[in-house]
Amino acid sequence: MGRIEWTPALSIGLENIDEEHKKLIAICNKLAHNIKGPSNSQVITEEFKDLRAYTVYHFSNEEKYQKTIHYPEANAHAQEHARLRKSVKDFQQSLYKEGYIPQQTVINFLKDWLINHVLREDMKIGQFARSKMTTGTSQELRSQPKENVDPSIVS
Ligand SMILES: [Fe+2]
Ligand SMILES: [Fe+2]
């Protein structure tokens, strides 16, 4: 996988969520790069920890936002998040048990998540929010709740 670059095509039109996606891409690029290179598994283990912490944070923010706009596909979206969260956890466990993780497995997952989930599923949240904004403008739709603490600034 070459580096994934954030481009406007990945924008879902909601600034806070876009910013979190940019951060996720940065974490994934670092991980995909190191898993190819000679880094030892301790580095990869730490990067998976960062990925997992940021994933939990981001999904939770996204799910809270969906509640505020009464997004009709929130349950299906949450199930998809649960599947992605479980994959990250499974990777961590096999890395812990075997000290190794196949590069291609991780790269396929990162592609699936970053490209397919963001482009197909997250994009629909943005479209729905915009359709609500044009029919009945509400300030709460414009801002995403920020009750969680960004794990990348705490550690
Ligand atoms: Fe999502
Ligand atoms: Fe997302």
From TrEMBL:
Region of interest: Disordered: 130-155
Compositionally biased tracts (Polar residues): 132-142
Keyword Amino-acid biosynthesis: no
Signal as UniProt keyword: no
InterPro entries per record: Hemerythrin, Hemerythrin-like, Hemerythrin-like_sf, Hemerythrin_metal-bd
Domain of life assignment: Bacteria
Record GO terms (molecular function): metal ion binding
UniProt keyword list: Iron, Metal-binding
Record Pfam families: Hemerythrin
Every Hemerythrin-like domain range: 13-126
PANTHER family: BACTERIOHEMERYTHRIN (PTHR37164)
Family statement drawn from the similarity comment of this UniProt entry: Belongs to the hemerythrin family.
Name the record gives this protein: Hemerythrin family protein
The organism of origin for this protein: Solidesulfovibrio magneticus (strain ATCC 700980 / DSM 13731 / RS-1) (Desulfovibrio magneticus)
